[in-house]
């Protein structure tokens, strides 16, 4: 899986989001993502993460092994 594929999946599920995905180990399985979305307004961090995971669908059943998430509402 590539950073671009992850970004596309997240943006498909959260079209108003700003998404930055990194592959710090350069192994294409462990990723870090920062997702900022107005849709997160009023939601807990857990709810925000669940929204991102929902956008990723079954990706964790395949090539995506780990994703460190940072979420929030844009300033």
pLDDT < 50 stretches = none
User: Mind summarizing the main beta sheet?
Assistant: 3 strands, mixed
CATH superfamily: BolA-like
Total beta-strand segments? 3
Counted up, domains total 1
Topology-level CATH name: GMP Synthetase, Chain A, domain 3
Description:
By secondary structure, the chain is an alpha+beta fold. The protein has a single domain (3-72), classed as GMP Synthetase, Chain A, domain 3 (2-Layer Sandwich). 31% of the residues lie in helices and 25% in strands. It is built from 2 helices and 3 strands. It has helices at residues 3-13, 45-56; strands at 18-22, 30-36, 66-72. α2 (45-56) links the parallel β2 (30-36) and β3. The longest helix is centred in the last third of the chain and has 12 residues, at 45-56.
Topology:
Blueprint lengths: L2 H11 L4 E5 L7 E7 L8 H12 L9 E7 L3
Parallel strand pairs: 2-3
Antiparallel strand pairs: 1-2
Helix pairs in contact: 1-2
Quick summary:
The chain has 75 residues and is of the alpha+beta class. It contains two helices and three strands, in the order αββαβ.
Descriptors for this entry?
75 residues, alpha+beta, GMP Synthetase, Chain A, domain 3, 3-stranded mixed β-sheet, 2 helices, 3 strands, 31% helix, 25% strand, globular
């Amino acid at each position: 899986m590539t950073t671009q594929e992850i970004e596309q999946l997240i943006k498909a599920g959260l079209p108003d989001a700003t998404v930055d995905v990194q592959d710090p180990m350069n192994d294409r399985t462990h990723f870090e993502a920062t997702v900022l979305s107005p849709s997160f307004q009023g939601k807990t961090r857990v709810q925000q993460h669940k929204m991102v995971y929902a956008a990723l669908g079954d990706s964790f059943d395949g090539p995506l092994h780990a994703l460190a998430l940072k979420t929030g509402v844009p300033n």
